[in-house]
Amino acid sequence: MKKFGLMIFVLSISLLIAQGSYASNIATVDLNRVMQDSNAGKSAKASIERLVEAKKVVINRKIKEISKLSDMLKSGKLSAKERDRQRDLYQEKVKALQRYKTDAADEVRAKEREMSNNIISSVVDIIKKYAKAHKIDAVMEIHNGGLIYWNDANDITKKIVSIYNKEYAKSGK
Q1: What is the percent of the chain with per-residue pLDDT over 70, rounded to a whole number?
Q2: Rounded Cα–Cα distance for residues 73 and 137 (Å)
Q3: Which of 53, 63, 57 is closest to 93 using CA atoms?
Q4: 118 CB contacts (<8 Å, ≥6 apart)?
Q5: Which pTM was predicted?
Q6: Within a domain: residue 1?
Q7: Contact (CB, 8 A) for 52 and 131
Q8: How many domains does the chain have?
Q9: Helix count (H) and strand count (E) of the chain?
Q10: Within a 13 Å sphere around the CA of 96, how many CA atoms are in the beta-carbon half?
Q11: pLDDT, average across residues 96-111
């Protein structure tokens, strides 16, 4: 449905341009590429990777604990009462691991969303300033399509990344 709406929007803009009654200077930007190529995007990606690695360390530690309990239960060296206690502990730790994995995945997704939203918000402000300064009537985001052909000379993504990198460096983040 989104693609259909975008196609209608592009066709409408094209018709208005053809009639000479609307924007005559349209540029494109690939926000996904801005996220990948900008220093802020690279920093965010590295931060997320560090978070994921930290979560993996905890998960691996919990798996080792569960494995030790499993080995102990399989050994047959425990009394019936101790085996029941260890089995209950094993089940608790398995459930705790599952909860931790779910919580960790949710935390990583939330952090990714937060960082992406912060970057995109800053980039949109830069795009607006850039468009006004360069008398661009419209800027369209082209990632994931909707456009079949566009003159790459109108793609301002590299310029936006460059400006954003300068502003990001000034902010000291």
Answers
A1: 80
A2: 71
A3: 63
A4: none
A5: 0.72
A6: no
A7: no
A8: 1
A9: 5, 2
A10: 14
A11: 98
